[in-house]
Each structure stands twice: as C-alpha cells, then as structure tokens.
Design a protein that fits this description.
By secondary structure, the chain is of the alpha+beta class. It is built from 16 helices and 12 strands.
Length: 442
C-alpha cells in the first residue's frame, strides 16, 4: 500500500512539475470533445423540431423567390427573415379547400428585442396544444401572447405593455419603433420546447393596422397641430396634389419593404391535410407566380442533410484537433523524459525497476488523456445547459443539454484509445532508456 501511495505521489508530482504543459494538453483534448458534444446536441434539437413541425404542418405557402430552407427557417424556427409577402386570399382559399383540415395565417413583420412578433390568430395558438396562463384568443388587435422564454428574459407577465419594432430584431431592417401601437400581454405560454417559446404572438389584424400608415413612425416626421393649420392656410391650393404625391411615395416605399404588411398581406400560410397525397397536390397547385409551396417533410429532409454535413465537418475538425492534442501530449512527454533523465536514473539507483518507471510514464500520459476526456464531456454538456435559453433563441428550438449525439461515444472512445497509444509509445521510450549509464555519470 505504501509503495502504491508513493507511486501515485511521484505521478502527481511529475504532472505538477510541468503544470502548464499538462493544462494545455488537457484543454486540447477537452475542446475537441466539447465541440462534438455541442454539435450533436444542437443537431438533435433542430432535427427533432423540424420533424415535429413537418408532421404537424406538412404544407407551407410563402412568397415566390424564397428557398425551401429559408421558408423553413423563417416560418417554423423564426430565426430568419421572410423574403416577401402573399395575399390574405391565399389563406382564405386554403382554409376553404376540402383537402385542408386546418390552415393558419402567419404575418411576421416586427419584433420586440431579438424576439419576433408573429401575427396569427387564436386558433393557431390553440392548435399548438400548449398549456398557458391567461387568455390566448387574440380577440383584440392590442392583445399579445408571450412564449415562455420571452416572458422570462423580458421580465414581462400578464398585464405588461410594450411596443414593437419594425423589421426583425437585431437586423438593419429594425429601423424604427411602432410607438403608436401598444400591446398588452393577455397570456403566457408554458414552456413547449419549441420555437414558440421564443416568439410573441399577436393578431394578424394588428400587423395590418400598424402598417396601414397610422403610427408608422420612422419614414416620415409628424408635425404639430399649429404647423399643420399654418401649412394648410399657406398651401391650400396644392393640398390635393401633395397628398397624391405623398401617397404615391408611401406606396413605392411599401412595395419595396417586405415587412409592410398592410392591405391584407401575409408572409406565409401553414396548412394541414388529410394525407400526404393531398400535400403533393396542393404543392403543385400553389407553386405558381407569386407563391412558393413547400412540402415540409421533403424540405426538412433536405434541411437535415445540411446539418448532418455540418456535424460531419465539425467531427472531422474535432478529430484533427484530437490528433494534434495527441501529438502535443506525446511531444511534451518525450521532451519531459529527456529532461528527467537524472531524476529517473536516481529512481533506478533507489532500486525501482525499469518496468515500474515505464509504467509511471504511461500512467502520467493516461491521466492527462482521461482528464481531457472527462473535462470535454462536462464542458460539452454544461455549456448548453447554462446557456440553453440563448442557444434556443439562436436555433429556434429547445435543446436537451444531456443528450448524447451519434458521434459523441465514438469521439470519447477514440480519444481514450488515442491516449492509450500515446501512453504506450511513451512507456516504450522510457523502458528503452539506458538509465544505468546515466546513473553512472552521476
């Protein structure tokens, strides 16, 4: 027992003696494995959300010119900007179609902070199937329902008031605030684990009211009452002409503003059908000038391929990092062996066998590798756990921090095997060192 304690004391003392090199080696292994873990967690969350949304809303109709991936990101995940607008009649026609069992309007034009404001109706919120507090009917154009993450991060609850910002949050389009239209929080959704946690829901009619010219601050200034009366007196003869030009300028601006959704415009329609054949039929019918119809299930499969490829790329670079880390550990260990020749020779003089010394070196290397593997696993899961809300907002899906990705077990095992190989090389090097000759010199 004393020999065993002395043996481990030597190992720890050796690692402490080259503390900087030890820490760098551990971190190199840990970072590579953490990347694999985080990639697996994010990919799983996105794939799960895409699959569930594709099953629930198998058809999406949006504006022509947007790609299927972009439509999925902007409509399902709420993490991209809509690329255009479609007439409200599209929703009405779909809703009346006997092949459609449910249809819901989507009008995404504004935001509050980084969270999108989604114009829809109370039927859509009920269709989510989420539990909630308060009222989610969206009966009034000033009513708002908050996702769980929005309520928590913005510190708002039922009864709170706020105003929206034109465009999507965090973008150059978010140019001005709709100060004349105040929302009142009527309901708060309980956590669902989906993109609705990070969204604000209002009536689509509220979006039309806001973008109908009134309260649309930012493009034009507002004059006081006295100034307006004076201008009316001085320019009465030109009033009609100026009004016509001003109206024309507004319409021109609005035509080029994808977030101007007045006059019965939407950004998308979500629809559910009785069977997959009907989805295909409707996709063909609604893929026409001005519209793009997306078969959500097919788009999700294509969408998932991008993330699978991204996961493979991340795993590849993580593997390269592991190889570099292994080479670093080996180089540091071999250099340390040369620097410790006298120390090891002294151990030989004290009667410690060559095999024991080689085992000592091997154990040092294994401890560094195992420490890197353990730290990498913890970092790869603790970081997503600590920043779950922020990551969820960024990817539009709720993450499961302790999910083990498909590539993670292989990466962990590979790191341990690689550490074993490095340890064996270091052990053989130590075993073949002529420490008797070194001790004779001393």
């Amino acid at each position: 027992m004393r020999k065993m304690n002395a043996f481990f004391t030597l190992v720890i003392a050796s690692l402490k003696g080259r503390l900087f090199a030890t820490v760098v080696s551990v971190l190199a292994v840990a970072v590579a494995l953490a990347v694999v873990a985080v990639t697996g967690i994010v990919s799983f969350a996105i794939a799960k959300q895409a699959f569930e949304s594709g099953r629930k809303y198998p058809l999406i109709v949006a504006a022509e010119g947007a790609s299927e991936t972009q439509i999925i990101l902007s409509t399902i995940f709420h993490i991209d900007k809509p690329r255009g607008k479609i007439p409200f009649e599209t929703y009405e026609t779909l809703k009346k179609d006997p092949r459609v069992t449910a249809a819901f309007p989507v009008a995404a034009a504004d935001s509050v902070g980084v969270f999108p404001i989604i114009g829809t109706n109370g039927d859509f919120l009920k269709d989510l199937g989420a539990t909630y507090r308060g009222d989610i009917a969206l009966a009034d154009s000033h009513d708002a329902v908050l996702g769980a993450t929005v309520a928590r991060q913005l510190l708002m609850d039922i009864g709170a008031q706020f105003t929206g910002t034109h465009g999507m949050g965090g973008s150059a389009d978010a140019a001005h605030e709709h100060a004349d239209h105040t929302y009142v929080v009527k309901g708060v959704l309980d956590p669902t684990g989906g993109p609705e946690d990070a969204a604000v829901y209002t009536s689509y009619k509220a979006v039309w009211e806001i973008h109908g010219g009134k309260g649309h601050k930012g493009h034009k200034g507002h004059k006081g009452q006295g100034e307006e009366e004076e201008e009316h007196e001085d320019h009465e003869d030109h009033e009609d002409h100026e009004d016509h030009e001003d109206h024309h300028d507004h319409e021109a601006d609005h035509d080029h503003d994808r977030y101007h959704l007045s006059d019965g415009m939407l950004t998308a329609v979500l629809a559910r059908t009785g069977n997959p054949v009907q989805v295909f039929e409707l996709q063909q019918e609604y893929s026409r000038p001005g519209l793009t119809a997306v078969n959500t299930a097919g788009a999700v499969r294509s969408f998932q391929k991008y993330f699978n490829t991204a996961g493979l790329v991340a795993t590849f670079f993580a593997g390269l990092t592991l190889l570099i880390a292994a080479a670093l550990i080996l180089a540091i260990t071999l250099m340390a062996l040369d620097a410790r020749r006298r120390e090891l020779a002294l151990l030989r003089i004290l009667g410690i066998g060559r095999g024991t010394i080689a085992l000592l070196i091997m154990l040092e290397t294994l401890i560094v590798t195992v420490a890197g593997v353990v730290l990498g696993f913890l970092l790869g899961h603790l970081i997503p756990a600590l920043f779950a809300d922020r990551i969820g907002v960024l990817i539009g899906a709720s993450i499961e921090p302790w999910h083990i990705g498909a590539n993670e077990p292989a990466a962990l095992l590979g790191a341990l095997l690689l550490g074993q190989v490095v340890a064996l090389i270091a052990m053989l090097r130590a075993y073949r060192m002529n420490l008797v000759e070194e001790s004779a010199k001393n």
